[in-house]
């Protein structure tokens, strides 16, 4: 099973998004863990400052006034009382823990004038209105549990010996109400992902265009050159591609001029020799000369056809391939060949009709030559046209299925055209298929014989 996407865009996007999501997840977890510590510390600092202010205020008043002030000041989350509660066991704090910082802050604000007792607990000593244990469990699930507890307890002795007890309950909503935080984190992740996808698309789009141009170049060498724009590396790649295309065009043009000259130069001596052969008195020699000249002309003609097979000068036309196959079938029947079109269900296809016909004829004649008959089936999917030409002959050795496409290669080792031909038919057929952006594959049939499959791609 494939894990990584096959496209460069998909792989870059997967790597980048995975890294960003992992970094964001770790950052979120650390933020939640640190958030509880900071909120607890901030709440402790605020509590210490308020307790110190109340202590100084109560120390200046008498008992009756203190009771009146306590009634006013005893407002949640800070409970104030002149009664002495039962204290839990003393705690040992880390020097840098929020609990130790609360004690140190309160002692600094009060000075040495007021004796002080401090306890940080997860249970209220003055009220049982809330189930602090359930709160602690909830906060632990959220990953934001306060370092020690949710209640700051402090007892301060006033100047006249009276003790004032303070219980400051931290509102657990500051820990548990994280909806806004999650919304902010979600929005940040979505924005980062969108920006990352756009960045990857911008980076890979030029490569996609270059690949598309290279694919088109295989079927039409005269494609317009790519604009040499974009980043430095992409400009260099496009310049190299355009240079390669220009060199290929010059090479093909030079070869075409050379082939035209060869074709012209060969016709004259062959025609002259044919006229001289007709003047021979010996019928047997005249037939031998004429047959040899016919072979020379056929070899020269097929060689030129092979070299011109990738010539794209014929315009693309919407072609009914089924009708084309029926025409080939009828032409074959006229010369006594057994060709059957078993099924053909194709929509019109943009092709070079004469070249495509030559490709199909070569494949069909190859089947007829070695098996005496050919059966044709044609089908299509959304983007692919598939034409199969099968026979029931002796097939081809597996190791030579690709070799037979090489120019002038023949399975039959004699040089007689009656038995082996010139060895160019399959080469010409494949060149024509490639010029249409397609391919030809040969395979031996399980029931015996050979099947040649012509695959053509539909381009949107």
Features:
460 residues; alpha+beta; Helix Hairpins; Heat Shock Protein 90; 3 domains; four-stranded antiparallel β-sheet; 54% helix
H/I helix tally: 11
Strand content: 5-15%
Number of domains: 3
Rounded radius of gyration (Å) = 46 Å
Helical fraction equals: 40-55%
Question: Quick check: average pLDDT?
Answer: 77
Low-pLDDT runs of 5+ residues are 127-149, 413-417
Distance between the termini: 30 Å
Strand segment count: 11
Strand order of the largest sheet: 6-8-9-11-10
Order of helices and strands: HHEHEHEEHHHHEHEEHEEHEE
Gross morphology is rod-shaped
Largest sheet properties: 5 strands, mixed
Q: Which structural category fits the helices and strands?
A: alpha+beta
What does this structure look like?
This protein has 460 residues and is an alpha+beta fold. The chain folds into three domains: 8-181, no CATH class; 220-308, Helix Hairpins (Orthogonal Bundle), CATH 1.10.287; 313-457, Histidine kinase-like ATPase, C-terminal domain (Heat Shock Protein 90, 2-Layer Sandwich), CATH 3.30.565. The chain has eleven helices and eleven strands. It has helices at 8-59, 63-73, 98-110, 132-142, 173-176, 179-219, 232-278, 283-308, 321-334, 353-371, 425-435, and strands spanning 78-81, 116-121, 151-157, 163-169, 317-319, 338-344, 349-351, 373-380, 384-390, 439-444, 450-457. The protein has a five-stranded mixed β-sheet. It has a four-stranded antiparallel β-sheet with strand order 1-4-3-2. Strand 8 (373-380) and strand 9 form a beta hairpin. 19% of the residues are buried.
